[in-house]
Amino acid sequence: MEISGAxxxxxxxxxxxxxxxxxLLELGRVVxxxxxxxxxxxxxxxxxxxxxxxxCVSRLRKLLRPxxxxxxxxxxxxxxxxxxxxxxVHLFRSAVRDTEILVKEGRTEDAAACLREAVGLWRGPxxxxxxxxxxxxxxxxxxxxxVDAIETYLELELGLGLHARLAGEIPSxxxxxxxxxxxxxxxxxALYRSGRQAEALQVYRSGRDLxxxxxxxxxxxxxRSLEAAILNGDPALExxxxxxxxxxxxxxxxxxxPADDGTDAEPVPVPSAQAGAALFQLPTAAGxxxxxxxxxxxxxxxxxxxxxxxxxxxxxxRPGVGKSATAVHxxxxxxxxxxxxxxxYCDLRGMHDTPLxxxxxxxxFLRALGVPGPAVPDDLDERAAMYRGLMASRRILVVxxxxxxxxxxxxxxxxxGGCGVLVTSRARLTGLPGAVRIDLDxxxxxxxxxxxxxxxxxxxxxxxxxxxxxxxxxxGRLPLALRIVAxxxxxxxxxxxxxMVTRLSDERHRLDxxxxxxxxxxxxxxxxxxxxxxxxxxxxGLLSGVEGPTVPAWSAAALLDDDRPFPADLAEPLVDARxxxxxxxxxxxxxxxxxxxxxxxxxxxxxxxxxILGPQEIRRLVGGWLFLLEEANGRVVxxxxxxxxGSGLRWRPPEAYVERLLAxxxxxxxxxxxxxxxxxxxxxxSGLHEECWELASLFGVYAERRGYFDEFSEVLQVAASAxxxxxxRRGTAAxxxxxxxxxxxxxxxxxxxxxxxxxxxxxxxxxxxxxxxxCRAWMADSAYGRGDAESARGLCxxxxxxxxxxxxxxxxWRPLVLLGRMCVEQGAHGDGTVYxxxxxxxxxxxxxxxxxxxxxxQMARRDMxxxxxxxxxxxxxRALELIAHPGDPVGEALLRFGLGRxxxxxxxxxxxxxSMGRSMELWEQLGDHEGVEQVRAALEGLPADSGAVVAVSGxxxx
Length: 958
Fold this sequence. Notes:
Layout: E1 2-4, E2 8-10, H1 15-25, E3 30-32, H2 33-40, H3 49-64, E4 70-74, E5 77-81, H4 88-104, H5 108-119, H6 133-159, H7 163-176, H8 181-193, H9 197-215, H10 221-232, H11 242-253, E6 279-280, H12 293-304, E7 311-316, H13 323-338, E8 342-347, H14 358-368, H15 380-391, E9 397-403, H16 406-409, E10 420-425, E11 435-439, H17 445-456, H18 458-463, H19 465-474, H20 479-491, H21 497-505, H22 508-511, H23 519-530, H24 534-543, E12 551-552, H25 553-560, H26 568-576, E13 581-585, E14 591-594, H27 597-610, H28 615-637, H29 655-661, H30 665-671, H31 673-685, H32 689-706, H33 709-726, H34 729-745, H35 749-766, H36 769-785, H37 789-806, H38 813-825, H39 829-846, H40 849-865, H41 869-882, H42 889-905, H43 909-926, H44 929-940
Parallel strand pairs: 6-8, 7-10, 7-11, 8-9, 9-10
Antiparallel strand pairs: 1-2, 3-5, 4-5, 12-14, 13-14
Helix pairs in contact: 1-3, 4-5, 4-11, 5-6, 6-8, 6-11, 7-8, 8-9, 8-10, 9-10, 12-13, 14-15, 17-19, 17-20, 19-21, 20-23, 24-26, 24-27, 25-26, 25-28, 28-30, 28-31, 28-32, 31-32, 31-33, 32-33, 32-34, 33-34, 34-35, 35-36, 36-37, 37-38, 38-39, 38-40, 39-40, 40-41, 40-42, 41-42, 42-43, 43-44
């Protein structure tokens, strides 16, 4: 610490420096005598402490008098009066505020220079040489502010195109602060913009290795996203133009700035060079879209005209008029420029028997916006409030297809003025406040002819212009009907257009009725259907039995009981005929299909007339879902399903196809959730109660781990009703067991215990020892949670006996781990070790990473009880590796907290803060207030970490 004026003054080290530093940091505010005593003596101050403070103040008054600085006595302590412009810490804070103003004025270059000058005030770590515990925390914060300022001016200068210079400057800063992710991101971006992509990626890889070695953590999402963008050559990473850099600087300068009153503001998270991948859920736009200029202009005007409120456009029209294609076309057109934060999309299935609920759609959208499954509220209003909060500061377009009622849409309207909502519906939705309704009519003749030409070729239309005009009039210029007829002509290039007109002439009367309903659409579809070969026509009718939102390639093979290696070959002729749409590609590389609603209805009619869609076909279809879900779960949890099995039919697709499809079982289950829910409901309606409860039970295995409790509850209700109606005792017991797990996760203990008791009674009645053992294992957990250790032990031993009788060698890990935990908590560490090691071997044999992590967690707790902190750290880190994919937020929160405690006990205070901070962040995301408070209390109890100081001026006039 030093004072510079006309001459340099030296402040004697020790108490005078501590008192002066405390007063300077609170310039113009009273610092109590008690606070100064605490700063000088962390504990056990002498009886003369207050007198010694007075002596220090008196000496400082004499020292500061030549500079015009005055220390006043103000109850309950002292106040230092001086020009803030003479104190470097206040000069620094003022410069940060000036930077924000400069950026708002578009003076990015001046802003960066201002911050560089402010950082130049520092000559080393803040308050270096001052040994005062109370001031050390403030010094660390000052050092953090300095590095934040460095990162901010670097980001501003990157926006000015100075990447080549910065690529040489930033490496030394990264070496000095290797764990600062934002600095590392700025270096990666500078190198990438300088044409040094390989070096940019090496910066990421070396950082990743360091994070894992030092903290046991992967890099944050922003760094990972930036790496992916560099690998993909994302154009968004290129150096922005002058306007973009100015706009970007506005956000940059606002981060981490001090509050206007001179106090330290709460730190604000700083986005890296790439703020993460935007949401993009839109279906593929039609490449042959024509016309609709007035509609596109009207919808665009509604969505963009008012920046203070959400624009809501509702596209209305009859079936087949092209509402969906027009909405998707407009959404793609506006996406990048006007809605840069992404697009949310959902087919509300309003015209189906079971339309999606607003609550269910909000759950999907919240998860897409980054909210973990367990943190999604149950209540509709709470979901809507969370959704509005997340959308308020973003510019996102929401596309909602096939809406039925205002109630289905209203909770999905964002609050932010930068957002837009585009709805398609067959109903007018006049009760939706602020919505502008736009009617979509049939195509103009010139656009209908243009569409025909795009599909079949301009030369054919040119050769037969009159026949082409008659043709588009005959199909009523309805886009759906015109596309299908054109597809048939395209598949038969030797047909004349006049011949197609002749074929349509027999149904001209019904085609005249196009504006009134389905009849003309049905007639148009029949023209294409008549051109299908016998097998394709059969596949067309059979696929109408698939009730989910998409049609997987294997479903055609299941319905036909066909074992060909590439099942998509069965459906592709329907794609060629435009009777089936391709909506994506599955993990096996095969297409995923989707019926247009009207085409699906027509297919059902043809299947009914032909009598081809019977109970056996539906059973094979449902059996395909059962086989794939069971196989996917097996790849996730190994043999550790912990569920009873029924006798439902399993239909197996070709082995090589299954290997490709389930290469990432987590991704497959996540992607097929909607279809699985539909299959469970279909099984229930079709009387396939055995397949129904097995599907529900297997879905619960994954849903419980991933926090999909809404869907879990939905399928349980369906399956439970089905098995009870069928008098299926095993199925009823299995659904009672699954219900108990759902109730436990929802902390409804009484209902959980009642369901578990009913399940146990059911398994006893039918003599199912595996089911009894599962129930006893969970009953033991419940008993121990109530403090009844004796009953818990007896239930664990009973479960082990049941599993032995059932020949189940892996399920025993669950009662074993509870027995081990009880022994450890009762001080019997040797017995506890035996149980836990045996449990670990069982989970390793089963191949369930999450179960292994649960056992390692208990073993680490035992290590902590024995003061074996290094071993505990190793177990916590290993457990975190095991649950890293696809993620387990609850498990990670527990493990991060345990790791932090082990690090703290080993004297690693800095890493402990990081680990516990991540744990608290997870608990906050999950809405678990008890978890948050537990971690917060532990963090507050950690000793200060002197090694965590980041740097600013040792000077420093403070």
